[in-house]
Design goal:
Elements (H helix, E strand, L loop, with lengths): L6 H15 L10 H5 L9 E6 L5 E6 L2 H12 L5 H23 L21 H17 L6 E9 L9 E8 L5 E5 L10 E4 H6 L4 H4 L1
Antiparallel strand pairs: 1-2, 3-4, 4-5, 5-6
Helix pairs in contact: 3-4
């Protein structure tokens, strides 16, 4: 007869399952992400905000004309250059997190590795964050709010053996250079601007927590 797992062992297994999900990302087109990660792609001006880790919960939020006008103002501020547009994208992502927080219950969503909140409505892992940011970016692209970038598929890094936990991020691709940029909203708390950097820099990052524990 098998002995019951201790709470510590259960937590370790849960952590492995959840963060391993972030390692199995596809490099298919951005819209293909939703079908393989239990998300729902945007429909017209409605986004389906993932939360609870791994898109356990999906809460629809429809953007009004006022919302779209606000997004346009934010993104127009970055029209001067690709760099300026990336800063505007960061502003837009933070705006979305604040905009949906009351509906979703994500006002207190914490940033970074937070396994104790797995399954908690309103808390988000990297799958939720990548999906939500990609949804926002697709809406802005549909409304031609982006001048210098195209929305591209989320990307993943880390596989334990290299000392990093698996993690995923949304991305955009600069039209002029073809450079892919991470738009990583998982690392910071709700409503804070995401980290944006070239994907090769992002892929090289990662805490060495696994080798030191």
């Amino acid at each position: 007869m098998f002995s019951p797992l201790s709470p510590t062992a259960i937590m370790a297994v849960a952590a492995l399952l959840i963060v391993t999900a972030c390692a199995s990302q596809s490099t298919s087109e951005a819209t293909g992400w939703f079908g393989t990660h239990d998300g729902v792609p945007p429909k017209a001006n409605k986004v389906y905000i993932c939360h609870g880790f791994g898109c356990v919960y999906k809460t629809p939020v429809e953007y009004s004309r006022q919302d779209l006008a606000r997004l346009r103002v934010i993104l127009v501020s970055g029209r001067a250059s690709p760099s300026a547009e990336r800063q505007a994208i960061a502003h837009a992502v933070a705006w979305q997190e604040r905009r949906v927080a009351v509906t979703v219950g994500s006002e207190e969503d914490v940033g970074g590795f937070d396994i104790e909140n797995a399954g908690v409505s309103g808390q988000m892992d990297c799958i939720d964050e990548s999906t939500n940011t990609t949804s926002l970016l697709l809406v802005t692209q549909k409304h031609k709010m982006l001048r210098h970038h195209d929305v591209s598929a989320p990307v993943a890094r880390g596989f334990f053996l290299d000392g990093r936990y698996p993690h995923a991020t949304a991305t955009v691709t600069e039209k002029k250079t073809g450079t892919v940029y991470a738009v990583d909203s998982w690392v910071n708390a709700n409503g804070k601007r995401p980290d944006i950097m070239p994907i090769d820099h992002w892929l090289a990052e990662g805490d060495r927590w696994f080798l030191s524990t």
